[in-house]
Amino acid sequence: MSQTKTQLQQVTEFLLAGLTPFVKANQIDAWQENGQLIISSEDLGDGGYRIAKWKHNAVIAFEKFPHKKVNPYNLLAMLAAFLHDSGWPRDQFGLSDPTLDIDPNSADSVLVLVEIELLDDVDLIPDASGPVLFMGNRYRVALVPVNVAETVDVQVQTGGDA
Fold first, then answer.
1. Is 161:41 a contact under the CB 8 Å cutoff?
2. Is the pTM of this model over 0.85?
3. What is the pLDDT of residues 61-112, one digit of tens each?
4. Of these four, 39, 49, 121, 136, which has the most CB atoms within 10 Å of its CB?
5. Are 67 and 110 in contact (CB under 8 A)?
6. What would the 3-class secondary structure string for the chain be?
7. Residue closest to 109 by CA, chosen among 79, 70, 147
8. What is the Cα–Cα distance from 99 to 59, expressed in whole angstroms?
9. What are phi and psi of 42, to 5 degrees?
């Protein structure tokens, strides 16, 4: 994860924000299913580890999508745009493209189920009272801070006459 929220939370919030006021928060639900825990133990520095990746099918359900008030292709475009702009390495991990299932509710609304294959990082940071015992130390699940250099000191040496 590049943020403090799961990928499912990020995409759900993005779609809801783009569809408001036509879709209300109580008309959308999201969950994970068919997950696979991919074990690793990548040392990320500063005592942090990437202990696993969580590959799963994320489902976003729009209970009463107002297809007569909102062009349904807006939902498709928003989903595609978010996945494109997210920078998540979907191709690298072989994640499939989203699928949608649409069932009529009434003349004015449909149930839309969006299924997206996602992959979240499961990172650990040191915490003396953390719940996870790993390699003899206590950790908690949280994003490992990434230190990014703000300046670089470059020294160039040229060959001399010696």
1. no
2. no
3. 999 999 999 999 999 999 999 999 998 889 999 999 999 999 999 999 999 9
4. 49
5. yes
6. CCCCCCHHHHHHHHHHHHHCCCCCHHHEEEEEEEEEEEEEEEEEECCEEEEEEEEEEEEEEEEEECCCCCCHHHHHHHHHHHHHHHCCCCCCCCCCCCEEEEEECCCCCEEEEEEEEEEEEEEEEECCCCCEEECCEEEEECCCCCCCCCCCCCCCCCCCCC
7. 70
8. 10
9. -85, 120
Go through the domains of the chain in sequence order and give each one's CATH number: 7-41+51-122 (3.30.980)
Per residue in 125-138, pLDDT tens? Answer: 999 999 999 999 99
Q: Token digits for 124?
A: 């650990």
Side chain identity, residue 74: N
And the tokens for 49? Answer: 């580890």
Pairing of strands 48-65, 28-45: antiparallel
Structure tokens at 151: 């300046």
Tracing tokens 């996945």 back to the chain, one arrives at 83
How many Å apart are CA 12 and CA 5, to the nearest integer?
Answer: 11
The Cα–Cα gap between 76 and 45 comes to: 39
